[in-house]
Amino acid sequence: MEIFITGDTHGDFRRFRPDIFYEQEHMTKEDLVLVCGDFGGIWHGDPRDDAGLDWLEDRSYTTAFVLGNHENYDAYKDYPREEWHGGQIQRIRPSVLHLMRGQVYELNGRKFFTMGGASSHDIQDGILEPDDPDFEEKFQQLEQRGALFRVNHRSWWAEELPSEAEYLEARANLARVHWNV
């Protein structure tokens, strides 16, 4: 198993084109490309995401990813969980895998710990609520002045930071492997 690591694809998978990522010519589904945060391949949570996900599925390798802060967390809620290499995943496609927070995976004789998430740096000017009666006016004002803001459940999710339950699961999984990752 070969493991290639990258991050911050934000739904743009051009870096995985064969003319750029030429190593894939000799890769198989046993090999792994790991995206460490801001995957962005499931942004809409509907068929608009299919083209990119299907394109990744057609690669010769397996794509696995950890969520970052710029993700649509609502879109992941209905994917079932299963075990894979010792940790929990959500299988998005047969070879496109979401590595869950707080998990330890045994890959190529090594243990990998995944946590994912981060605090958004681009919310200094606020987080708008889409059901606010003054939403459109506030949105326009912030846009006009080039403010750094997000919209709850459209471009920002509170789940960008791990929950206490996720931290507890992480600690339990790390204790299980004696914090040796």
Summarize the structure.
With 181 residues, the protein is α/β, with parallel strands linked by helices. Helices cover 17% and strands 24% of the residues.
Name the descriptors.
two-stranded antiparallel sheet, 10 strands, 181 residues, six-stranded mixed beta sheet
- Biggest pleated-sheet summary: 6 strands, mixed
Morphology: globular
Calculate the mean pLDDT score and round it: 96
* Amount of beta strand: 15-25%
The counted number of beta strands is 10
Poorly predicted sequence stretches spanning 5 or more consecutive residues: none
Fraction of helical residues: 10-25%
Strand order of the largest sheet: 1-2-3-6-5-4
Order of helices and strands: EEHEEEEEEEHEH
Radius of gyration: 18 Å
Separate helix tally: 3
- Spatial separation of the terminal alpha carbons: 18 Å
Structural class: alpha/beta
Structure overview:
There is one protein chain. It contains 3 helices and 10 strands; from the N terminus they run ββαβββββββαβα. It has a 6-stranded mixed sheet. The protein has a two-stranded antiparallel sheet with strand order 7-8. It is α/β, with parallel strands linked by helices and 181 residues long.
Topology:
Elements: E1 3-6, E2 32-36, H1 50-57, E3 62-66, E4 81-84, E5 87-93, E6 96-99, E7 103-107, E8 110-114, E9 127-128, H2 135-144, E10 150-151, H3 164-176
